[in-house]
Specification:
This protein has nine helices and no strands. It is an all-alpha fold and 175 residues long.
Length: 175
């Protein structure tokens, strides 16, 4: 189903719930995967996914259509992930480097994370990036989004994203 069809159903009071079910079905896996790449833990990613769709439902009337529905939902997801990571760091009184170490150990010990050693090493290297840089890297590298789409999601200029992505690649190559 096309985004426009989902949006039409969402904006019609008679089909809003049906439209929302379509929206969740259409975007749930992508939202979860982005959250999972950001927070590593399966349960945390599930919680974030639920929070994202609650916010989407509560704020449907604020969606102006300036961007695609996908972009709007991804922006909410990225904000939720960054907010979650910051709260977790503050709640645990951990410096970023120690939080990163905890997530790295989850990569090694979780039965839900598969992959060969090179994939695990890449995931651990990505965890060394600050939250927003990690988000940009995941969106560009794994989700293969265009810089223009990432700019809409993150509220950053395309030029700034290109420079940042280039620096991220250098950092990861040195890991």
């Amino acid at each position: 189903m096309e985004e426009k069809d989902i949006l039409d159903k969402l904006l019609n009071p008679e089909t809003r719930d049906y439209g929302f079910n379509l929206l969740v079905t259409h975007f749930q896996e992508r939202v979860y995967l982005l959250a999972r790449k950001m927070v590593i833990d399966h349960d945390d990613a599930n919680d974030i996914t639920q929070d994202v769709f609650i916010k989407v439902y509560q704020n449907l009337e604020k969606f102006r259509g300036d961007s695609s529905l996908f972009t709007w939902i991804y922006r909410i997801t990225s904000n939720e992930c960054i907010s979650f990571l910051r709260k977790k760091k503050i709640r645990n009184f951990l410096p970023w480097s120690q939080s990163s170490d905890n997530w790295k150990s989850q990569i090694d010990n979780s039965p839900l994370i598969s992959g060969d050693e090179i994939q695990k090493k890449l995931q651990k290297a990505i965890l060394t990036l600050p939250e927003k840089q990690r988000l940009v890297f995941n969106l560009k590298y794994f989700d293969e989004l265009k810089y223009e789409e990432i700019a809409e999601i993150t509220g950053t200029s395309v030029g700034g994203l290109k420079a940042s992505y280039h620096l991220q690649l250098k950092k990861l190559n040195n890991f």
